[in-house]
């Protein structure tokens, strides 16, 4: 058993998180959290360990200026687009696909190139603090197998999908038919589900879901013919637990083109619904320009939205009304959407989600108060720190259908966590975090200091502050990780 002792911040709802300067978290051999005891001050440490029967157990003590949070969950990114990161910002969506994205993705027909690239991509994403990631691959079966293999070998939790795209794509980057697309889709599902299952059991005696799972990935409605969407819907119906990921209402031109291609559908969301692809484990990226009827449909189907603010700014798509979705009870997580987004870190998505909400608030004429209201209403208001943390962790877990396993710390859940270091030796000169002080602070004062560290990390932190990345209790990345 592994026991951590130190500061812990844990999301509890959209409006709150718990913080404890002195928390004990015990991790069992399966990588699950066995027990948690908060506010164990140093003079009570040995007594608490004795009560738990762990007086002789090794305790990993966090330094002052270090704290644990749940790992970040990226609900939407494109692994083959990482080499394009930081380019193409002069285009809007459809031209960006034509001139920037499709040419790069077509290179992944070369499996050697795919392996070399994906090893760098996955390592960087893990080290940025992403413990769970929803990956889009390309249309290439063999390259997507390589992506899944690398993710599996690196120990990240992930959903990996081969893109379905048999129309409105370049002649050198398009699937030949819906039959060919479906054959490769079945093949990638078989490949990923053939990975050796974990030989561990959860506290409820149910076998853990594999860390790496397949996900159906119709790229977006424009890229799929009716018969391909119909076949994907049939496949989805036969596999209720199979997740689905796609794009929706990112760009006004895209929405108009979708209407022309699917004249019988009531809306963009209605396209996916009429083919059986809108359900509780569907992840819809962007959702910048949804109609009221689409919001109601998404809520009824209990689908989730991946908010990708960096990409929406960068490609001039718009500002999604995330507060409205939260008020309606729609599940929302964050996505980096590289390379529409120019940063692989969920920290960047947090920062831009905050800016996006403030823009909505300014557009609505709402003043920014010194202490944002913690009321249940989010529409056209800035997002408080607890909300931003929740979206990056527990909210993403809900969108991915993993809320029982990850996203927060609780007994029986997997220990997917980040050990954050805001001490000067982390080397991030942009973060004014921990400073040595001889003063003795009360427990409440220390919690206030911890709150400040969290906020500064979310807005000024980067990979240098991510000391360790744990997935299922195993160290898989971060500054302390060595191959």
UniProtKB/TrEMBL annotation:
Q: What is its EC number?
A: 3.5.4.3
> Which keywords fit this entry according to its UniProt record?
Hydrolase, Metal-binding, Zinc
One GO biological process this protein is involved in is: guanine catabolic process
Cofactor, free-text remark = Binds 1 zinc ion per subunit.
The answer, when asked if Zinc is one of the entry's keywords, is yes
What pathway or pathways are given for this protein in its record?
Answer: Purine metabolism; guanine degradation; xanthine from guanine: step 1/1
Query: Where on the tree of life does the source sit, at the highest rank?
Result: Eukaryota
For molecular function, the Gene Ontology terms on record are: guanine deaminase activity; zinc ion binding
- Amidohydrolase-related domain location is 67-476
Cofactor requirements of the protein: Zn(2+)
Give a Gene Ontology cellular component term annotated to this protein: cytosol
Keyword Hydrolase (UniProt): yes
Family statement: Belongs to the metallo-dependent hydrolases superfamily. ATZ/TRZ family.
Name recorded for this polypeptide: Guanine deaminase
Q: Which organism is it from?
A: Gymnopilus junonius (Spectacular rustgill mushroom)
Source taxonomy lineage? Eukaryota, Fungi, Dikarya, Basidiomycota, Agaricomycotina
């Amino acid at each position: 058993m592994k026991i951590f002792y130190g500061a812990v911040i844990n999301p509890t709802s959209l409006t709150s998180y718990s913080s404890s300067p002195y928390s004990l978290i015990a991790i069992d051999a399966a990588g699950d959290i066995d027990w948690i005891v908060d506010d164990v001050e140093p003079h009570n440490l040995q007594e608490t360990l004795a009560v738990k029967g762990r007086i002789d157990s090794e305790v990993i003590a966090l330094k002052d200026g270090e704290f644990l949070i749940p790992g970040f969950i990226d609900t939407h990114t494109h692994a083959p687009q990482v080499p394009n990161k930081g380019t193409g910002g002069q285009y809007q969506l459809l031209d960006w696909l034509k001139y920037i994205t499709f040419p790069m993705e077509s290179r992944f027909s070369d499996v050697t190139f795919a392996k070399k690239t994906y090893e760098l991509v996955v390592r960087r994403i893990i080290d940025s603090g992403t413990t769970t990631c929803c990956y889009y691959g390309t249309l290439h079966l063999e390259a997507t197998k390589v992506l899944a293999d690398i993710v599996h070998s690196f120990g990240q939790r992930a959903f990996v999908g081969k893109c379905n795209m048999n129309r409105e794509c370049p002649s050198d980057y398009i699937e030949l038919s819906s039959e060919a697309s479906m054959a490769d889709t079945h093949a990638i599902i078989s490949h990923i589900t053939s990975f050796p299952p974990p030989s561990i059991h959860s506290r409820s005696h149910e076998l853990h879901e594999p860390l790496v799972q397949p996900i159906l990935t119709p790229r977006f409605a424009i890229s799929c013919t009716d018969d391909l969407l119909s076949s994907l819907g049939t496949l989805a119906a036969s596999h209720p637990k199979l997740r689905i990921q796609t794009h929706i209402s990112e760009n006004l031109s895209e929405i108009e083109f979708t209407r022309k291609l699917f004249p019988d559908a009531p809306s963009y969301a209605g396209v996916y619904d009429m083919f059986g692809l809108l359900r509780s484990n569907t992840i819809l990226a962007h959702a910048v320009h949804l109609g009221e009827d689409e919001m109601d449909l998404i809520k009824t189907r209990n689908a989730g939205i991946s908010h990708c603010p960096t990409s929406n700014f960068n490609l001039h798509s718009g500002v999604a009304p995330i507060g409205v979705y939260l008020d309606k009870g729609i599940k929302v997580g964050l996505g980096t959407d590289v390379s529409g987004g120019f940063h692989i870190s969920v920290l960047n998505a947090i920062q831009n989600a905050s800016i996006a909400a403030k823009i909505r608030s300014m557009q609505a004429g709402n003043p920014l108060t010194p202490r944002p209201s913690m009321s249940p209403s989010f529409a056209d208001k800035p997002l408080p720190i607890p909300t931003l943390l929740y979206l990056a962790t527990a909210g993403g877990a809900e969108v991915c259908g993993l809320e029982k396993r990850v996203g927060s710390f609780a007994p029986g859940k997997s220990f997917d966590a980040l050990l954050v270091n805001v001490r000067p030796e982390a080397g991030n000169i942009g973060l004014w975090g921990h400073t040595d002080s001889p003063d003795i602070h009360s427990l409440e004062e220390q919690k206030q200091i911890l709150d400040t560290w969290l906020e500064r990390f979310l807005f000024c932190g980067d990979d240098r502050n991510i000391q360790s990345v744990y997935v299922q209790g195993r160290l898989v990345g971060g500054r302390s990780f060595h191959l």
